[in-house]
Write the structure tokens for this entry.
Amino acid sequence: MGWLRLVYVALAFLAVTAVLLPPHLFALWLDHPLARRIPRLWHRLMCPVLGLKVTMRGAPHSNGPLMLISNHVSWLDIIALGSVADVAFIAKSEVKDWPVFGQLARWQRSIFVERSQRRSTGKQVNAITARLERGEIVVLFAEGTTSDGNRVLEFKSSLLGVARQAGEDAHAGVVLQPVSIAYNRIQGLPMGRRHRFLAAWPGDVELLPHLLTVLREGAIDVEICFGNPSEVSDARSRKVVSRALRDEVETMLAEALRR
């Protein structure tokens, strides 16, 4: 049954992508707002195909440009978050060279950043600023890597610094909103700490085996919680803001896992 499910997922992926890709590429060429909305439809259609059930608590801030500051557990985060809002992801530059995932990221107009090259910081700030000024919702996975899903890693204040600078440059009342992503059930049963590896994709786990495991298992529940928004122009230091956002994400994650 596992291999039959893999065949089903592959065929469904090809069918959904084949139908939505031509109008999406046309919208990209025209720079039409549909270029933001079609990826959300793709993610929403792929959730049931993958067996991913998304529950949302709260909602994205709706007044003005928004940056979501989230924990990062798995490649599934992209599908889950992308299904509930029209978002653009900030991703490390290596992602664009990944097979399949890299091409999908480029089609969704992800913002690729070179974390190891400080000389490119200004260019990255400008890219994020441009998206915010267009009213797009930008997602930053502030840990800079994936975790085991049971905890929140320290936020990279340098990443948040780039994000805040972009928000300040946008001059448009940009809002930072913390988000937690929690994987809490599989096949309808509570996951527990020891079984969260079925959804989580920590940095030392190979992508392909994890991908195949998730596709064979299916029926994974994920809860996305949206916290309290705050103005990006907050006068507090970068590290203080980073700690405050992390604390709120950690609190929301703990509550979601307890549920």
Residues 2-30 form the longest helix (29 residues).
